[in-house]
Write a structure and sequence with these properties.
Distance between the termini: 27 Å
Number of strands: 0
Structural class: mainly alpha
Protein name: Cytochrome c biogenesis protein CcsA
Order of helices and strands: HHHHHHHHHHHH
Family: Belongs to the CcmF/CycK/Ccl1/NrfE/CcsA family.
Number of helices: 12
Function: Required during biogenesis of c-type cytochromes (cytochrome c6 and cytochrome f) at the step of heme attachment.
Pfam families: Cytochrom_C_asm
Largest sheet: none
Helix content: over 70%
GO molecular function: heme binding
């Protein structure tokens, strides 16, 4: 790669990092100020295309295009599909995250998911561009085992599956955080109401001897206390924040399931294609390489997730716990094994 190409690639990487950072901020501002109305004409606010072209969505499109150009540039320079080293796989993973998010937002019309996916894409891009050693970013010749059409098929499908599983698992983690927060808030409100009822009952007991002859007043006081308590409970149940949070929880659980449902078959196809490629390259379908082992563990975790959802009818908290475990396993399979493990798939940074 000549100096001019390196300069262009560095510019694209820096621009992509800045674009993802601004995109993340835009999505965070959107979810923190949902009642904020921009001073734009009302017809535009009701227009479908205007709704889609919000700042966060535009930023995600720009980031996706910049990552795409970066991959094309390396493809042109190396004369092979840019998935031959760890740096290129990170760039492709980042592109996959933005691509899946764009498709998801267009289909579901929910832009708040960007507040979860954008920081993840930013982290992956920053790790690849600014943290990886320069020697791992350089374009090198393909080793004989990688000179195969299976390179594009196997690695592309695996990274797309990682992106989908990571995205779905992140939504499950967000579900757990919001669910825990709501439980804490609800328990606090219930304790407050319980204390109010106890105080009211204590006051009634204290003044009851003074009002033995005033049965009507005592009855009225007791009924008033009960009515006030019931009104407070109804007010808690009708709280708009709680209602919105319940809706968000339902959406998070549903969207997490749908995205993981996309990533699991991709992972299955990726593992099977890798086995066929391994047999062609090394004469064995399965050698219990660390990458293969952790890919199998990842497959089993998400198979359990889908089994419990479809057969046991689990949803919400229980399934989100399994998906959150899958999030950790995916990163171990992709990042940990590549950097720390020894084997046919290891890049040997720390090995």
């Amino acid at each position: 790669m000549d100096l001019s190409t390196i300069s262009i690639e560095n510019f694209i990487n820096n621009a992509c990092f800045l674009c993802l950072f601004i995109t993340m901020l835009c999505y965070w501002v959107q979810i923190s100020s949902t009642n904020l109305t921009l001073s734009i004409p009302l017809p535009l606010q009701k227009n479908f295309f205007w709704k889609q072209l919000n700042p966060g969505f535009l930023g995600m499109i720009c980031s996706n295009l910049l990552l795409f150009f970066s991959l094309i540039l390396r493809w042109k320079s190396s004369h092979h599909f840019p998935l031959s080293n760890f740096y290129e796989s990170l760039i492709f993973l980042c592109w996959s995250l933005t691509f899946i998010h764009l498709i998801f937002e267009v289909i579901t019309k929910n832009d708040w998911v960007g507040s979860i996916i954008a920081p993840t894409a930013l982290f992956v891009n920053a790790f690849a561009s600014f943290y990886l050693p320069v020697q791992l970013q350089k374009i090198g010749p393909l080793i004989p085992a990688l000179k195969s059409n299976w390179l594009m098929m196997h690695v592309t499908v695996m990274l797309l599956s990682y992106a989908a599983l990571i995205s779905g698992s992140l939504l499950a983690i967000a579900f757990l955080f919001i669910h825990s927060f709501l439980n804490f808030q609800t328990s606090s409100e219930q304790n407050r109401l319980r204390n109010n009822v106890s105080i009211a009952e204590s006051l009634n007991d204290a003044y009851l001897p003074l009002l033995e002859d005033a049965t009507d007043i005592t009855s009225f006081s007791s009924e008033t206390t009960s009515i006030n308590t019931i009104d407070e409970v109804k007010q808690l149940q009708s709280n708009s924040f709680v209602k919105q949070s319940d809706q968000i929880l339902d959406n998070l659980d549903n969207f997490s399931y749908r995205i993981i449902g996309l990533g699991f078959p991709l992972l299955t196809v990726g593992i099977l294609s890798g086995a066929v490629w391994a047999n062609e390259a090394w004469g064995s379908y399965w050698s219990w390489d660390p990458k293969e082992t952790w890919a199998l563990i990842t497959w089993l975790i998400f198979a359990i997730y889908l089994h419990t959802r479809l057969i046991r009818q689990w949803s919400g908290f229980k399934s989100s716990v399994i998906a959150s475990l899958g999030f950790i396993v995916v990163w171990i399979c992709y990042l940990g094994v590549n950097l720390l493990g020894k084997g046919l798939h290891s890049y040997g940074w720390f090995a």
